[in-house]
Amino acid sequence: MFLTELKEVFKQEDFPVPKGFDEEDVNLDAPPLFTDIFCLHYIHTMSMHAAQSYSLAFTLSIRKNIRDFYYQCNITTMDLYNETLAVLVNKNLIDKPPLYSTPDKIHFISTLDYVTDIFGNKRTMNSLESGNIYFNLEKSSITKGCLIAFRQVCKDKEVNRF
Q1: Whole-model pTM?
Q2: Which of 10, 78, 126, 136 lies 20 to 30 A from 108 at CA?
Q3: Residues 81 and 5 in one domain
């Protein structure tokens, strides 16, 4: 669905349609490289990236047809995220992010030290910072699994060296 719309935009703009993966790049007779659980984690992780990318693309687009396209991409991606998360939770296949203790009072940032004091007083990481570290570790493990698998089946020595 989205590929057809993109091709149409490229044609309207007299822009060459990029060549992506196609049937020539896939060996349907090969045994699977990944388990279903890994694929589910991969799709979930990629939906996180896609949601961020589509939101940014939407806000950077001036043309209504392009904004409409990215709007629909984002809705579809958020649905996919919700579906994959539901399966991961229902099958107990997801690690929960770190827990945070509830503060006993409100703390206000009164100086720039909060963001600039690298060598002085240490402060506790906030939930956004530790959450980003957690999810980056999750994404790194998915990336490592993909790289190891693809390297094992890649026949092009130059691509393998890269």
Answers
A1: 0.81
A2: 136
A3: yes
